[in-house]
Write a structure and sequence with these properties.
Layout (H helix, E strand, L loop, with lengths): L2 H28 L21 H16 L3 E5 L8 H4 L9 E5 L5 H13 L6 E6 L1 H5 L21 H12 L2 H13 L4 H5 L8 E4 L4 E4 H8 L6 H4 L17 H17 L2 E6 L10 H11 L4 E3 L5 H4 L12 H11 L4 H10 L4
Parallel strand pairs: 1-2, 1-3, 3-6, 6-7
Antiparallel strand pairs: 4-5
Helix pairs in contact: 4-11
């Protein structure tokens, strides 16, 4: 190829690549998902949904040597509402607590986080794990920019896939349109909220504990403006008694048994809570018996199904996320040291 043809080839290639390079530069500068530049994740004015797994892991990585965390809450977004100020009442006074949660968390994600802490040589003195059938059924990392596991938890083996996921989702046309509309107008509009493209809810975020509290919803509940007809239409449950399908299979057993070994190594004071979703679907009894056999019946608590906690919508923000008032009741039960009193408390809630 002579110089003239080579120059022509380079010119045409640059013309073809220019839009891509321009978009890539725009993405790097704007960094809407906060995975490139370092700054507080919950900074004022951030309305883009971010990967809570990455938030939790990166914040821990930056701070664990300073705060020497030894007590952890693991789970999906339901675990957010087990507030550290409530949990600390049941722990030694010198406990250093951290919310190590993720959106739509998987068992794989919980396992990798516990392994990550152990491999760093850090302590796991107290652990509270919040699970449900959906969490336990997931034995690998999820897809999408809100859910993909942090590369640190997999020794950075999939870091290219991680960043490619965010870059690809940035150019999803509906998101890009909403994001640029927000940047120009400075307003989060109804169509952005309704389609879950942007989120301007107010959260009180504690960077030390990685705890995000839903102040916006609680304020509206207090003002009696939260449970609108539109919101209540999302509180759905089927008529009759239903049981979730078995979630624990061979791959899950391997992870759960490894988690138990790590807990034994650290002499961990742990509790495992099966969440009470509004749909009242009962956790599978085979899965429950497996967890009880592995971790001990006194350390596994099933609050699913029909009971006082799941009966009223006022205990929920939506049909899966329950409020801190429910979490407080649960913690009061699972940390009750008198077995007879604890059994009576469970019976009083109508839990079978």
């Amino acid at each position: 190829m002579n110089n003239k043809n080579l120059n022509k080839f380079i010119y045409k290639t640059l013309i073809v690549l220019f839009p891509f390079l321009l978009f890539l530069l725009l993405y790097i500068i704007l960094d809407p998902f906060m995975v490139i530049h370092g700054y507080p994740f919950y900074k004022k004015g951030n309305v883009v949904g971010i990967d809570k797994d990455y938030v939790s892991t990166t914040t821990y990585e930056k701070q664990y040597q300073k705060y020497r965390y030894d007590s952890f809450i693991f789970g999906n977004s339901r675990s957010m509402f087990y507030e550290v100020s409530d949990w600390q009442k049941y722990l030694p006074s010198n406990s250093s607590c951290y919310h190590f949660d993720a959106s739509a968390e998987s068992l794989y994600g919980i396992y990798k986080k516990i392994l990550y802490i152990d491999q760093k040589g850090e302590s796991l003195n107290n652990v509270l794990i919040i699970v449900d059938a959906d969490t336990l059924s997931k034995d690998k990392s999820l897809e999408g920019h809100l859910f993909i596991i942090s590369p640190q938890l997999e020794n950075n083996k999939h870091i290219v896939k991680f960043h490619t996921t965010f870059f690809k989702d940035f150019y999803y046309y509906k998101f890009l349109y909403a994001f640029l509309d927000y940047k120009i107008s400075g307003k989060v509009k109804d169509y952005m909220r309704d389609n879950h493209l942007l989120d301007d809810r107010l959260f009180d975020y504690n960077q030390i504990t990685n705890e995000a509290r839903n102040l916006d919803a609680e304020e509206k509940i207090w003002k009696a403006t939260y449970y609108t007809n539109k919101r209540l239409s999302g509180f759905n449950r089927l008529q009759g008694d239903f049981v979730s399908v078995p979630a624990i299979k061979d791959s899950q057993r391997q992870m759960l048994e490894e988690i138990k070994k790590i807990f034994t190594k650290h002499h961990t004071n742990y509790r495992i809570v099966i969440s009470p979703p509004y749909d009242q679907i009962k956790f599978n009894p085979e899965d429950l018996h497996y967890l009880e056999d592995l971790f001990g019946k006194d350390f596994v608590f099933d609050f699913s199904g029909r009971n006082i906690l799941t009966e009223t919508y006022q205990n929920y923000y939506d049909n899966i996320h329950y409020r801190p008032q429910v979490s407080r009741q649960i913690m009061g039960i699972i940390y009750e040291t008198d077995s007879t009193k604890r059994a009576n408390m469970i019976e009083a809630l109508g839990i079978k």
